[in-house]
Amino acid sequence: MGEVYKARDTRLDREVAIKVAAERFSQRFESEAHAIAALNHPHICALHDVGPNFLVMEYIEGETLADRIRKGPLSLDEALKIGVEVAGALDAAHRKGIVHRDLKPGNIMLTQAGAKLLDFGLAKYRRPVAADDETLTMALTEGAQVVGTLPYMSPEQLGGKEADARSDIFAFGAVLYEMLTGQRTFQRQSPIDTIAAVGREEPKPLDDFVKGVPDDLERIIWRCLRKHPEERYASMSEIEPELEDCRARASEPVSGINLRVLFRQSKRPRVAIPVLIILLALGSISAWWLQHSSKARWARTQALPQIAQLIEHEKLGEAYALAVEAERYIPNDPMLGKFWTAISWSGSIHTIPPGVSVFRRNYNAPDSAWELVGRSPIERRRMPLVDSQWKFELTGFTTTERFTVVLWGDVLPSSSLSVVMDEEAKTPAGMIHQTDRFVWEAPASLQTTPADLLGLPGFEDLQEVLLGDYWIDRYEVTNQQFKEFLDRGGYRNQQYWKHEFRKDGRTLSWTEAMTLFRDATGRPGPATWEQGDYRRGQEDFPVSGVSWYEAAAYAEFAGKSLPTIYHWATAASPWASASIVPASNFAGQGPARVGSYRSISWFGAHDMGGNVKEWCWNEAGSGRRFVLGGAWDEPAYMFNDADARSPFERSANIGFRCAKYRSTGPAGKAAEPLTLQARNFSREKPVSEALFRVYKSLYSYDKTPLHAAVESAEETADWKREKVTFAAAYGNERVIAYLFLPKKSQPPFQAVVRFPGSEAIDLRSSTNLPEMEQFDFVIKSGRAVLFPVYKGTFERGDDLKSDYPNLTSSWRDHIIAWSKDLGRSIDYLETRPEIDRNKLAYQGLSWGGAMGSVLPALEDRIKVCVLIVPGFNLQRSLPEVDELNFAPRVKVPVLMLNGRFDFFYPVETSQEPMFRLLGTPKQHKRRVVYETGHNIPRNELIKETLDWLDRYLGPAK
Predict the structure, then answer these.
(1) Which residues form the catalytic set?
(2) Tens digit of each residue's pLDDT (9 = 90 or more) over 67-79
(3) pTM for this structure?
């Protein structure tokens, strides 16, 4: 590309280097001149002058880093020194908007003054150049060029994409690796093999070449070398201080004095030299000790109290990070030792095969960079006690994801992770492996899956079934995938439609059935499509508006099956709903592109909560089929609650994903119909008034002082929210409650006391209250709302696992406690002068709706009830807490808002018996039924609720 001359600048009496360009490369030199002229940094080669086709540059004596590496790997100190200097040079360039694009050892000069970064000829360069023995130029498509040096080029550069600062970071990681090991990171026998290695393979472990590389430095290198730019450091300004820290830690154990320099420079008599050395060493050690002592004081006086405070506020991730920093200075501190048990866990990680790269990041921080934990097997490694997302990578094997959740201080599903990797060639496209090697809770395994581990309340009594290993789709079936089924004759080929069409008690013919599966324009296809196609730009959205029959036909076409309820729930991890639900698409504006939310199950399946409900194989009685997971327009607790619909239903919030078994379809007991044993309330009678009075006496409590306190307060444009606490009516417990006071009306306020849905049982923090969309409009209407934290919910969680009744004393005691919590909450409202104590309402959602048949019968200060998707529970409980015995004693006006297709509280066996048995006079109770499942339209919720409150409490002021 030209020639370089060593020359003498006679004007300034200095040696310079003159780079003279061949004619066809003059534009590259112009680009280089502009790049270097913009930079002024001690570790970047300086530009002195520029001519039409030449550059006059600083002449540097020394050797290139490439020549130095040929002599052997660098020492740790030498590599870190060069790394810090080059990092600073690159940071300066990037701050000027200049990307080097050809960072390699041959472009780094080593001098007595330190490293110098050379050759910005490819910086910002966009025109093709000829290749030399190191530089690759490859035309990928018209207008797309790849320029750089192969083993140091990032995957995005090789893909013809625009290089940015993160491309230089990738090359920087490769240079660090080579300095320490003496080996090129991705060098292979041929350019094609090298390209493949850069794109798909991980470098060999540093331990294969050199021992004693600090973990922090290894972590820096692996993060620089991540395949995806977003997983690398965002800038060199993050890397430089981390390398400085590594260098400081590496030098801490010694004085840092170069004895050979001292000997060489000393002119004193030989006898004085040892004294000088000792004095300087003592001085250096003293300086180090003073600095270390200062850090130790910081750790003890500042870090430890902060850690304690973070633990108190349940910010365990932040506490862990601070503790790691403090441990560097006070490693054996007893107080810090006590903290570790509260903020960390120690576990092992094993894989088949071994040698897998294991990465971790916080589950609630999906945009953060992956942290390298190590390579398997990993024994007894300390890790933060937080929900974590895991990634396992090994060349030739499918990348595997996992998720662990912290519940009650335990890491679930197991503190020892065991992962079986799958060969890429044997992995069905887009599917993940559910392996029977997974341990739920030793010694149980996935092969025998107890129904109570499914995480679906109400299925606790189902017997164990043998599942074995199987595959399930990572994401829901998308519009684009379903379009292939339609285009290839899926609606015309009867061989895909294996199941009898039964509707309204009769069997439909093939022709009759096909007329039901039309899109909005009358063409074959999902109900949400038009003219046999999905909306533009929604190819990666989940297909919706498909019946169970259409989903089953697609699965047959794809050589798969619909998952049974066992296989679906095992893959979905509903037992981890407290972590999965907040990360899922609930209460959204519609379905989202698959994978765009951060929810992931233990086995790495995405979007199994929210987005769209998913058809499952099993029948649920009366010809219905299970549909699980909940949808974007449903309450979040539907992730845990089973639903079932007519197999002909084609709602816009229903889609599916597929499973693949060892056989062609679901096998054994897992595929059998599931019918829950339900009560028949028409054949049962409530207890007598005399016996009910005895039951009611169990709920009485002494009205002792509340000792109430306002813990915190915050304001929005519409309300003021206070977090209050007061003494419970039992034990030494305190009730937490959130009081919302409206800003757009005048006191005294009418007040609504709320009882939540069952997700309150699974969540362990009430800081961000769920279900706000179910009552925010009440506050905006000018009424106050009190949201108590009932016993067994949120921070007051205990052994309560489900909102399903049972015949235990524990269930009875919980209901009695809930009644007392409600009573004490009203006691508290009566102490607030801004509340109208004579105008109190009860609002209950789902579980709270069912409790609306019990609690208002015990609390006569409630004047009106609004029950959202309520019904009688179908499971039995002890008579002193049985809903059947309490509903007739509810006398206040009651509004029930129900869904016609609600499987949780079915119409005929749950909703209607409850409405019929309520003791409220007929003219003062109202039930509205919508064409929905376990949800109702928000606009109808607002209209009916406010009309009901206006009618019986009067309009808000």
Answers:
(1) 102
(2) 999 999 999 999 9
(3) 0.58
